[in-house]
Amino acid sequence: MPKIRVLSDILASQVAAGEVVERPASVVKELVENSIDAGAREIRVDMDQGGAALIRVSDDGCGMSREDALLSLERHATSKLRTAGDLAAIRTLGFRGEAVPSIASVSRFRMVTREGDAVAGTEILVDGGKIRDVRDAGCAPGTVIEAKALFFNMPARRKFLRAETTEAAHVEHQMRLHALAAPQVRFRLRRDDREVFDLPPAAKSLDRVRQLLGPEMSRELIALPLTHGNGISVEGFLLPASHARKGRRHQFVFLNGRPVEDPVISRALAEGFRGALADGLHPGAWLWIDLEPTLVDVNVHPAKREVRFHRPLDVREAVLDAVSSGLRPPAPVVIPARVETPASQPVMPENISLDPRPVLQSFRAPQPSLEDWVAPQVVPPAPEEEPILETQVQAGGVPEFLILGMLQQRFVVMESADGLVLFDPKAAKERIYYDALQRQRQGGPAVQGLLVPVLMELDPRDLDLLLRERMALMDAGIEVEGFGGNTVQIRALPACLGIDDPRPFLGEVIDELLHDPASGARFAFERLARVLAKRAAARLMPRLVETRGLLGELFCCDLPYCTADGRPTLTEFGMRELERRFGLTKN
Length: 587
Fold this sequence. Notes:
The protein is α+β, with helices and mostly antiparallel strands. It is 31% helix and 23% strand. The protein folds into three domains: 9-201, Heat Shock Protein 90 (2-Layer Sandwich); 207-327, Ribosomal Protein S5, domain 2, CATH 3.30.230.10; 385-587, MutL, C-terminal domain, regulatory subdomain (Ribosomal Protein S8, Chain: A, domain 1), CATH 3.30.1370. The strands form five sheets. The protein has an eight-stranded mixed sheet. A five-stranded mixed sheet has the order 9-10-13-11-12, sandwiched between helices. Strands 16-17-18-19-23 form a five-stranded antiparallel sheet. The longest helix is centred in the N-terminal third of the chain and has 18 residues, at 164-181.
């Protein structure tokens, strides 16, 4: 008996489905791409139970004959490739010919399709890869595909599906991507018989971005001029550096109408800001890139998420030029002054120029005296920043420090009995806030209700995660509620933090919680307290006159010499070390 056997068609399709169909959002992606390739002007997606129970994609595209509909269920059957040369110049979104049979092999599948000039349509029923029925059907021109009970015949795959809300969030994200990639198409999404959104066709990409981003953020969009170079064109929009985030979920890149992810483009976006972004932050961006299909290989990933450029440096330069041009401040417009001569005023001869600028009174600076050159003038410091000399800070176990001054408006320089001490007020405040949150947790979180709740628009996947963890946030003193759509409202904050402007603070906190996760403890209270304390302290503006009180609060904490994540609050340089550095002692 031979050990090597040819897989059956159904098993081969199920293996292919493992690469193409990862979750319900994968089904939506493949079917919507086929609808766009079919010339659809309206695409509607319905899902039940996050797509695990039902996914239905309806379009008004060109439709298929019965022969083509049956062929579409065969593996490697496609209308988009004819010769090997076509593979080097892909202009369509789908081309592998595996999506439809792969979906049909892992679901209870139904297809209804009709060409525009056909009298009747075709209905095909498939159960786990086996065709059950083929018959005539009355239907509108276009195609409707249903996939019910996804992975019903593959329980090992089905148990890896996430919560219903999580899968629904991924489907919504996929629909938003396609809506941005094809703004001329109307997109409708319904979840459990409830409409999530209905996006009408947009004349321009900017209109589509505004539909999805909302009016408040849309006002801050920075348009990138259409940039050409080496057969590549780039255009799009950016958000200012103040909206940069840790993750790349707010970057949307479309290559020849295809949503893609590419590190070359992401790096070029960050480089275009030329140092305006902190390390690890990525700008919000919407980019549409067009280039010759022969210059890119889209056949390097089963789900077509990644591409490979033949000339990546050219792509980088084009993106970098577009971003730099968009961020460059406009040149000042010089308007020449206009001189109006009254009719009664005699006309001046042509050889006499008349300067319309206002006449400034002549000014001559006083000449410095000899004493001014010999004795330099000393400007006294501002009263609030005046060094506190010969002042002993001693309160409730606080070591004796002589406060000398401030370094770069950031660190406090002090003298101890043993040498020099650098004090970080922000790190100290971080430790104070962290201990206050820990104390509040024991007696129940003390919250500060906001007079006006803060509304925040989130990515559908981020929204789902945040709402699922709202009880953990409540334990830390943050009250979060859904507000409809992809908006959440923040109604209260921990009282001990005393935040004056909650919107930027909450943006930083949520961004770090969602996009810089700790292993298995993203919303654990200890991590929540660390993030809240760190972000609240980062907004502190250190002031020298507050040092004494801050030291007193710090040394009431259990571990005053470090923050919750181990960074020092004070650093001491002993006299022996200082003398050694200056060569005053023998090694």
